[in-house]
Amino acid sequence: MNQPTPAIVAQGAVKRLSRVALWLFCLAYVLPGFVGRGPWKRADINTFGYMAEMARGNTEWFSPVLGGLGPEVDALLPYWLGAWAISLSPAWLPIDMAARIPFILLLIITLMATWYGTYYLARSPMAQPVAFAFGGEAEPTDYARALADGGLLAFIACLGLAQLAHETTPALAQLCFTAVFFFAMAALPYRLMAPGLGAAAGLLGLSLSGAPTMALALGLGCTAIYFLAVGNNNEVRKHKQSRAIIVLAITLACALLATGWQLWRWRIELPHANWSEWQRLGRLFLWFTWPTWPLACWTLWRWRHQLFGARFSSRHLWLPLWFVMVAAAATLTTGAADRSLLLALPALAALAAFALPTLGRSLSALIDWFTLIFFSGCAVIIWVVWISMQTGVPAKPAMNVARLAPGFVHDFSPALFLIALFASGIWAWLVIWRAGRHRSAIWKSVVLPAGGAALCWLLLMTLWLPLLDFARSYEPLVRQAMAIMAGKPNCVSTLGLSRSQTAAFQFYGELTLKPIASGSPCSWLIADGGLPGTTATDIIQSTPWQARGTIHHPADPQEKLALFERRPD
């Protein structure tokens, strides 16, 4: 005999996770990666360059340009947010840090929307646990809160979230507005005002962040799910269909707005029909969404009777599944596969949460042991490399660092060291806590994955932060150029520089850059040394420039620039 639901949960298994502990944990994940570093190449400083230009008034807000080039992602809102933050920030705050403040808030909103989206899905009638004959089953509110805690922890545990969620790029804005729309669709049957505003903000934000097609697909799909859902009676069915009409109206309004502002762009790039390309995409799906994808697959298997038994009535399964399917389709058909797959993570985490009340003891123990070994091993590697850089023992990691990042000089930061040491102590305590008490909580199986992911990210952003800042920043490259120019010239001509290189010279060198085609009589020229026709010999023979040197990025020898000085007349 099949149970009406695979979730058999007692009241004792839905003990609420401490709100203070959850908030502190989220902040410990959010802040590292935003604070204490410079803009990183390439997408991070690329976006920052457009924000800075808009804040200075050097470009139009509806058609921004940087070095004569438009943005790679046809977004508007992310650039506006950064430019507004720079314009409103006090003089003592560095402008790159000011530009990150709105994106810190976007990530916090993403976490909150993921929690509330999972919470309202868990309140669905089809998602409730089995009712016991003599009572004692989990109360609906407590059950929903426990699953929401599990969904949020599963979201933080995703390996692909860490870097992309801590960059000031349109990808983070798209993630935030996808999560907001996901919350709106989950909460719509219970409330009208907040979900309605959330749906409008989510779809409008997606459209203005460079993803109007995603907004249209998500809106139409959710409308169809609400229209096709089977209710217990005509009143329930009419209630759902009225909500669907609201979603449809918001979707069409956002589509009209995207048309009026000419936000539609054709970016479909079908994967090449070769084995290596499919292997690359397969590896991306496997590691980027770990550990949520195996839990989500387990959810679909254990809840399969609810998924296919009643037409679209299992809203807690169909809604997140549709979000995942749309993001997966975008991943397979766009060039930025990882940034498209990022949008699937909130819904995938919600699906993973519904696996938690169905996990057996052996499977839960397997997750714990694998997580413990994997993340503890990663933490040990991070510490060993840091100790080697500090003391030279063991010698090989320090030698590898010197080979990969020549010119890097590591110094000791007591503050970063104490933060990393405290985080490692919390991880040890968490492992002991998981092995001992609170074994009945249904969110227990994602505590170690989330804690391990947060630990490794925090260790990287403390112990390895100077090294990563050196390797991923353009500052060393700009310093070399400024040393050759021996001062700050009035203007510098450019030839073939990328958007990120242009932004780096404007930010770190505070240079006024002008494309060589503009004919400005600048005394210096910076050219991309990898472009045909920009070698020293070619330029000397055809233009009034004298070669002054070639510079390479210390951590990327393939990235080289050639410097030329104008010959005297």
How would you sum up this structure, described in words?
- The chain is mainly α.
- The protein has three domains: 23-263 and 273-358, no CATH class; 361-472, no CATH class; 475-566, no CATH class.
- 60% of the residues lie in helices and 6% in strands.
- It contains 24 helices and five strands.
- Strands 2-1-3-5-4 form a five-stranded mixed sheet, with helices on both faces.
- A hairpin with a 2-residue loop joins strand 4 and strand 5 (556-566).
- Helix 3 packs across helix 4 (95-122).
- The radius of gyration is 26 Å and the shape is globular.
Write the layout of secondary structure elements.
Elements: H1 19-30, H2 43-56, H3 77-88, H4 95-122, H5 140-157, H6 161-164, H7 170-187, H8 193-208, H9 212-228, H10 234-260, H11 275-288, H12 292-302, H13 304-309, H14 315-333, H15 337-341, H16 345-353, H17 361-391, H18 395-404, H19 414-435, H20 447-460, H21 465-472, H22 475-485, E1 492-495, H23 499-508, E2 513-515, E3 524-528, H24 536-542, E4 545-553, E5 556-566
Parallel strand pairs: 1-2, 1-3
Antiparallel strand pairs: 3-5, 4-5
Helix pairs in contact: 2-3, 2-23, 3-4, 4-5, 4-7, 4-16, 5-16, 5-20, 7-8, 8-9, 8-10, 9-10, 9-14, 12-16, 14-16, 17-18, 17-20, 19-20
